[in-house]
Amino acid sequence: MHETAYEITTLTPQQPTPHPGMLPTEIPPGVQMVTLPGGIRTLAYTPAQAPPAPPIPIAQPIPAWAKTTALLTPTIGGGITAAGIGLSHAAPGLIAMTDALWAAIALIAAAAIGVPMLLRIGRGAAGTGRGATHITQNISATGMFGKANGTINHH
Length: 155
Known about the structure:
The protein is of the alpha+beta class and about 160 residues long. It is built from one helix and four strands. Strand 3 and strand 4 (about 150-155) form a beta hairpin.
């Protein structure tokens, strides 16, 4: 056989050439850097994550003022209803009473005006023919705390 100057080598897998990584700002939306089960890191599309569920509200006890108000509301409403029904039934009596009060006011006003007029008319007719009486009163005093003296004259 003849010998050749060839050298036989076996193929070995090439080591991956390190490529410069992307900056986080260069990664498009919806793509993330992931590590595969073999340890290789690569870019991959990831499903859109659902927004986190809102927190479940915790049941809080009802304040005492709200309970009191809720219990008083029907009572107050019932009282107003009863008052309205009572007024509707009492309306004819109230109208009659206001009419009676107006009549009483008119009577008092007529008496306040009429009685002095009747007294003046009665004095003039029953008089003795003399005119009106005039009274003159003179009062004098000396000093600040002096005794006062006075005279009354009828004319």
